Amino acid sequence: MKFKTPFLILLLLSTFANAQETMSVKGSKGYPATQNYTFICEKYAFSGETDVQVAKTEKGGILKLSIATANAEARISGGVYVDLANGDVIACVDKNIKETVEGKTTSYYYFTPAEMIKLKKADIQGIRFIIAGNSKSFGNQTGYFTAVNKMAYFSTGYDKSKKTFDTATAISVL
């Protein structure tokens, strides 16, 4: 019995250590990151979904935003506002770190250590961003969008389960 308890604890800890994801920015070293969350973006007609991931760095953190686009000219650009559940807003400046891979455009934004502390205390409620590019007929949709922290488009009033992602908990574990 004495041997089984430490073995189970070791097995549990190794599972959590291996389950953590990593994020690299354009081939840089990997940083410990949260899972990839799919936020709902109702006004974006092309896919309606935005992928969100947060990583911890030595100097703060990184926000990764990805969205499917119809052409490679469309980009997430300009500043991004991260709305927290407690009413705080974090403004991220565009450092022009972008990439397009397999029909998805991705932009990276940096958090300061103080902003990472805010993210550990409250869940991300929404992220406001801009998609810029050429708007041709049957091209990509451009404009201002908000990705909302919701797990699904629809639910019933009888469903009492949590309908948002626990981003603050995941960021605290980093």
Structure description:
With 174 residues, this protein is an alpha+beta fold. Helices cover 18% and strands 40% of the residues. It is built from three helices and eleven strands. The protein has helices spanning 4-19, 113-121, 167-173, and strands spanning 21-23, 31-33, 37-40, 49-57, 60-68, 75-84, 89-92, 98-101, 104-111, 124-132, 143-148. The strands form three sheets. A five-stranded antiparallel β-sheet has the order 3-4-5-9-8, with helices on one face. The protein has a four-stranded antiparallel β-sheet with strand order 7-6-10-11, covered by helices on one side. Strands 1-2 form a two-stranded antiparallel ribbon. The longest helix is centred in the N-terminal third of the chain and has 16 residues, at 4-19. The chain is globular. The two termini are 32 Å apart. 25% of the residues are buried. Residues 10-19 have low confidence and may be disordered.
